[in-house]
TrEMBL record:
This is GvpL/GvpF family gas vesicle protein. It comes from Streptomyces mauvecolor. Residues 262-276 have a biased composition (Basic and acidic residues). Keywords: Gas vesicle. Pfam families: GvpL_GvpF. It comes from the Bacteria.
Length: 276
């Protein structure tokens, strides 16, 4: 086990909580300090941690870092990689991004204070994974020639220009209607096949970098032995209609369901800080 004692200028970053386990983590997994994550066991629970510099993760600098999308992205990728490695050998309950404690005593207090959530969550999530579904409505992009026509319509063709713009708007509306109808039907069917389903806020294309309008952003909790059937059901819904796109992501550790059956704790918006 990696030495997890934090020095005076360091804090302990906590990725997830699990039951104690004997299996080795996959080769090559590294935490935020570039070392394999350490494990702190306490009263039948185990926290996976890394040492991190206080100059980055103490309250004031952390607030600034959370506004830096590049820093946030790097931290989130490492956080998710550690949780995925844990999921390969045990059942982790992922914690919020940037959950930090002062020292080992703080980690133990975190485990004690969260016991009423952690213990049932480990039992509920054991043997289960999360699949994500996103549905996009993506209208056809106008060609450069059509863009030029739109910018400089000639008076003699003004009526044609307005008719074309109306047609484009109607086409976008129709694609969105098809995407919404598919999303409703898919979500209802997949909730029947999963143990639980959760709707997240649609992602902003400016942040996600994905083309099209995100109409459905959902997560589903699926037992491992039913995962293949779930994926096959998703494929049955893949649309043949132009402009509607379905993306399946996963399998993931069950981030969206770590907070409990009635908790809105999800994959997005988890940035924060818990100091113990």
């Amino acid at each position: 086990m990696n030495d997890v004692r934090a020095h005076e200028d360091e804090l302990l970053y906590v990725y997830a909580v699990t039951r104690p386990f004997a299996a080795a983590l996959p080769e090559g997994v590294r935490g935020l300090d570039g070392e394999p994550p350490g494990l702190i066991e306490h009263r039948g629970l185990c926290a996976a941690v890394s040492r991190v510099p206080a100059k980055d993760f103490d309250a004031v600098p952390l607030r600034a870092h959370l506004e830096d999308l590049d820093w946030l992205g790097r931290t989130a990728r490492t956080h998710e990689a550690v949780v995925a490695a844990l999921a390969a050998v045990t059942c982790p309950v992922p914690l919020r991004l940037a959950t930090v404690c002062r020292d080992e005593s703080g980690v133990r207090r975190l485990l004690d204070s969260g016991r009423a959530r952690f213990v049932p969550a480990v039992e509920r999530l054991s043997g289960r994974i999360e699949w994500g579904i996103k549905v996009y409505a993506q209208a056809e992009q106008p060609s450069p020639a059509r863009e030029l026509d739109a910018q400089e319509p000639r008076a003699a063709t003004g009526r044609d220009y307005l008719r074309r713009r109306l047609g484009e708007r109607q086409s976008r509306d129709e694609i969105r209607r098809r995407a919404e109808a598919l999303s409703r039907a898919m979500h209802a069917e997949l909730c029947e096949r999963a143990e639980a389903g959760r709707l997240h806020r649609p992602q902003d294309a400016r942040l996600s970098g994905r083309p099209g309008e995100n109409v459905l952003n959902a997560a589903y909790l699926v037992p491992l032995d039913r995962s293949e059937d779930f994926v096959a059901a998703v494929r049955d819904f893949v649309p043949h209609s132009e402009g509607v796109r379905v993306e399946l992501t996963g399998p993931w550790a069950p981030y969206s369901f770590a907070g409990g059956p009635d908790d809105g704790h999800g994959q997005e918006g988890q940035e924060g800080r818990e100091e113990r």
